[in-house]
Design brief:
This protein has about 60 residues and is an all-alpha fold. About 90% of the residues lie in helices and about 0% in strands.
Length: about 60
């Protein structure tokens, strides 16, 4: 009977630790993907502005 209690205690601890960890990881991954999209848009915008400022002669 003690063995079963130990297993339940282990699973309880695992759930207590893993669930917040998974939630944090999902949040961080979501933020990372959002930031990557923003950076990509900024990179697209900046060269366009630089080309407009320099004019077509620079090519």
């Amino acid at each position: 009977m003690g063995n079963v209690t130990g297993i339940f205690a282990f699973f309880g601890l695992a759930v207590t630790v893993l669930v917040p960890a998974v939630v944090w990881i999902m949040l961080l991954v979501g933020l990372w993907q959002f930031a990557r999209e923003e950076i990509r848009q900024i990179r697209v915008i900046l060269p366009g502005r630089a080309e407009l400022a320099q004019g077509p002669a620079s090519h």
